[in-house]
From TrEMBL:
<dbReference type="InterPro" id="IPR029032">
    <property type="entry name" value="AhpD-like"/>
</dbReference>
<dbReference type="InterPro" id="IPR023923">
    <property type="entry name" value="AhpD_Avi7169"/>
</dbReference>
<dbReference type="InterPro" id="IPR003779">
    <property type="entry name" value="CMD-like"/>
</dbReference>
<keyword id="KW-0575">Peroxidase</keyword>
<dbReference type="InterPro" id="IPR023982">
    <property type="entry name" value="CHP04029_CMD-like"/>
</dbReference>
<dbReference type="GO" id="GO:0051920">
    <property type="term" value="F:peroxiredoxin activity"/>
</dbReference>
<dbReference type="InterPro" id="IPR010195">
    <property type="entry name" value="Uncharacterised_peroxidase-rel"/>
</dbReference>
<dbReference type="Pfam" id="PF02627">
    <property type="entry name" value="CMD"/>
</dbReference>
<keyword id="KW-0560">Oxidoreductase</keyword>
<dbReference type="InterPro" id="IPR004675">
    <property type="entry name" value="AhpD_core"/>
</dbReference>
<protein>
    <submittedName>
        <fullName>Alkylhydroperoxidase domain protein</fullName>
    </submittedName>
</protein>
<feature type="domain" description="Carboxymuconolactone decarboxylase-like">
    <location>
        <begin position="259"/>
        <end position="340"/>
    </location>
</feature>
Amino acid sequence: MTDIINLLSALGPDHPLARLRGARPDALTNAQNSFEALLEPAAPGTFSYGERYAVATYVAGLHGAANARTFYSELLLDDAPATLPQAVDAAIEAGRSTGPYWDGGFVLHDADALGERLAAAFDIAHLLVFHPRDARPEAMAHLAAHGWSADDTVSLTQLISFLAFQLRVIHGLQVLAGRDVAVPAPARASGVTPDWQLHDDITTYPDLDRPSRFVRHSLGWKAWVAPVPKAELTQAQLDSLIRPERADMAYFRLLARDPDALKARTLTDLDIFYNTDGGLSRAERELAATVASRYNGCEYCASVHSVRSVEEGGDAESVDKLLDEGHAADLGDERWNAIREASVALTTTPVSYGAEHVAKLREVGLDDASLIDHLYATAFFNWANRLMLVLGEAEVPARFRD
């Protein structure tokens, strides 16, 4: 099948950037496998193709990603009631906003036009696109109350989060190719405070010791949506974990509800961060991941990847300053500041990464292979952060409590 990222980036097979993507073959192949697992699975179950294409069209529209919106809307036209594409377009126009932010409330969608189940999915998609840090267990209960099973909830949140990755890679590749990528003017949708009630299928933790700041040490994580019990993991689910020890981790047992998506996502991750054949240093890939996580407000991911950046040779003082002061911190090094600024631009929604960021990255020594590694690392954590934030929450382990 045609590689969707190259297709929507208008990169032919002989384009230099397409060839450079081939230097990370598992990332290339499994980003495509993620598309197929989440948008065109062999067995879509109760999460229909039409719902998947509708969500993808909506998310692409919120990002202002014109090529992707057209692509997904054409898939939707082939597999939806005649009135649905118009309802999706109306939802996009009503939902245009900026992110990440924590003060805009929630945007609720027209159940009469979309149907109650799809409207609930769009409610959560808007949250994940623009302000994932505001996710609470009530958001997962909102899905459960409107017919989304635990399996479908995992597939839905994987789809939205994958698109946050895919659309950023497409945008970034077009910028690297020298194109002027148009994005919509900033907007701010009107938000409300929804009266979403907790559901019996959702687990909460009233006494959880939650982190009060960003830290450079390990954190725990608790799931709101029920993970698959370890003893009940199927062989396909066990295979999707890639590393057997992940069967002991609630996060991976939860994502194993959609094993094809989890397997493709994990293999994409491993090639982006552990393939050291040229390109950006490991420390700087982890820096990009930390910047995205700090900006999106994901304490868990920021803790893991700040530790790894330092372990791979990054400057501990600079990393700690990023954690303490936030995404605008001066890291005391021209190259690291350029990476930080570009990572922030890639993490904003709509994406603001442009030629000026590429020029600065080139000035501090990044070649084309390193630019793609930076793009991948940042974009991937716009996938990872959203899953961590919407499906559960971080916990301070007992050994780190005051």
